[in-house]
Amino acid sequence: MSHVKAEIATQPECWRKAANLAGSAPGLPTPGERVAVVGCGTSWFMAKAYAALREQAGQGETDAFQASEFPHDRRYDRLVAITRSGTTTEVVDVMRSVGERAPVTVLTADRAQPAAQIARDAIVLDFADERSVVQTRFATSVLALLRAHLGEDLEPAAMDAEVAIRMPLPVHPALVDQITFLGRGWTVGIAEEAALKCRETASFWTESYQAMDYRHGPISIAGPRRVVWAFGEVPAGLADEVEKTGAAFLHSRHHGGYASLGRWVGGRDPLDPMADLILAQRVAVALATTQGLDPDNPRNLARSVILG
């Protein structure tokens, strides 16, 4: 078994550990603080999801940025940085800069690395670290912790994750040529992460969009042997519009289960979007292995981007 496949399967327990940690974790934003959240790649997508959730919860203005695009002329009450390795150059640079004028909190997997040393407060999720280059359980565990800190009960999500690990895949690698992932609100970040998992793990053609905006151009590529996979709320009428193109529409709420190229799977309550992401992670691994690719070591990627 690949490392990433094994790591995907540990997510329910990792989420429970992360949720339990939320109550005692130092430096998490307090209600009313103006907060910036930064990351790169997968970490940025988790930052976007958290920012949307925090504002939705009425806890304060929250902006998410790619670390390389952080607006240094803006002022925030706190910076939250997400970096699994703790060594990513752009994240470390932003932490150093902002730390001169505002408290910095980092969520990382390695206490010994620069990010944890620079931050005023370091939240270390070493139990969710990974051997694979590809991030799965660390990213979702970070989001689980942040959701729990916002007051959510993560046990239903963890139970959904247990289902997502066992249930049949809604996409068969031999029957699909392209997948587009859609989200709304906080699940835009989830959709972007699902697309990235398939691209980096399997070099597979995926795209991601905000669900309402999908009809403003991107739907033009929908067609037979292509899939549109939506996370969270789905705009009225979108499923029918997608299916008219010949593409399969996937959503855990749609007709009470998953449509898999015309075949229904499930028939249960809708999955939490993070559990739905687990299915996309599993699809990414399946797409890689059927092509003879190593899902633990994607082409042209390293565990951390460190710039000279």
What's the short story on this structure?
With 308 residues, the chain is of the alpha/beta class.
Shape: globular
Proportion of residues in extended strands: 15-25%
Oligomeric nature of the chains: single chain
What sequence of helices (H) and strands (E) makes up the elements? HHEHEEHEHEHHEHEEHEEEH
> Which stretches are low in confidence, meaning pLDDT under 50 for 5 or more residues running?
254-267
Radius of gyration: 19 Å
Description:
By secondary structure, this protein is of the alpha/beta class. 37% of the residues lie in helices and 17% in strands. It is built from 10 helices and 11 strands. It has helices at 3-9, 11-21, 42-56, 89-98, 114-118, 137-149, 155-166, 187-202, 238-244, 273-290, and strands at residues 35-39, 62-66, 78-83, 104-108, 121-124, 178-183, 206-210, 226-230, 248-250, 257-260, 263-266. It has a 5-stranded parallel beta sheet, sandwiched between helices. Strand 6, helix 8 and strand 7 (206-210) form a beta-alpha-beta unit. Helix 3 runs antiparallel to helix 8 (187-202). The longest helix is centred in the last third of the chain and has 18 residues, at 273-290. The chain is globular and about 55 Å long. Residues 254-267 have low confidence and may be disordered.
